[in-house]
TrEMBL record:
EC annotation from Swiss-Prot or TrEMBL: 1.8.4.12
Pfam families in the record: SelR (PF01641)
Domain MsrB residue range list: 9-133
TM region positions: none
Catalytic activity: L-methionyl-[protein] + [thioredoxin]-disulfide + H2O = L-methionyl-(R)-S-oxide-[protein] + [thioredoxin]-dithiol
Coiled-coil regions listed in the entry: none
Record's keyword annotation contains Lipoprotein: no
UniProt entry tagged with the keyword RNA-binding: no
Name of the protein described by the UniProt record: peptide-methionine (R)-S-oxide reductase
Amino acid sequence: MTDFKLITDAQWRERLNDEEYRVLRQAGTEAPHIGEYTNTTTEGVYSCKACNTELFRSSEKFQSHCGWPSFFSPLAGDKIIERQDLSHGMVRTEVLCATCESHLGHVFSGEGYDTPTNLRYCINSICLSLEEKPIETATDDN
Ligand SMILES: [Zn+2]
């Protein structure tokens, strides 16, 4: 199995296109509202574009109207890394793929969205690839 943490910068440039490289490997942000999955409601699993690890599910995706795909929880906590990001004069929490340490987006809390966690994982579409498949969830009420 590939150890994605050992892939060199030059190899990432070969594996990804320019825009994927900019966002995933240089912590870029795609423009709002243009992303492939911004409003997608297709049932399925979203994997990391860089390493193919499953990261998020459609069952935790919600309409935040922020312009990027939003999830209230990752598929599992150990799939991602969260770390403080002080860039651009803001204090934010960056979200990275735990497997390949590529940048995915940011997570915001306490915004008042009607979700179980009050968290918004604001993820760039370009960092994800969606595989359509049925999701089994243990739901309480619906
Ligand atoms: Zn990854």
